[in-house]
Write a structure and sequence with these properties.
By secondary structure, this protein is mostly helical. Helix content is 32%, strand content 5%. It has one domain. 0% of the residues are buried.
Length: 75
């Protein structure tokens, strides 16, 4: 009887996934801090909503083009 060959493959696959997960960088802040903090309702009530920033399209996210969009932008 031959030993099963699935266990080594699964171990290698699991290690590869862990290695890829370790390369992932955590996302940074999208918006700078607003000073003074804008909250609603105003004091003395307990603030329940806080303004963190405004999105006005993809440019607001600060993302660079990737893939074909980067190639087309360089032409």
């Amino acid at each position: 009887m031959t030993p099963p060959r699935r266990a080594p493959r699964r171990a290698v696959g699991a290690l590869a996934l862990l290695g890829l997960a370790a390369c992932h960088a955590p996302p940074g802040p999208i918006f700078p801090d607003v000073q003074p903090p804008l909250v609603w309702p105003p004091p003395p009530d307990i603030p329940r909503i806080r303004y963190v920033g405004a999105l006005r399209g993809e440019a607001s996210l600060g993302r660079r083009p990737t893939g074909w969009a980067a190639v087309e932008g360089g032409l």
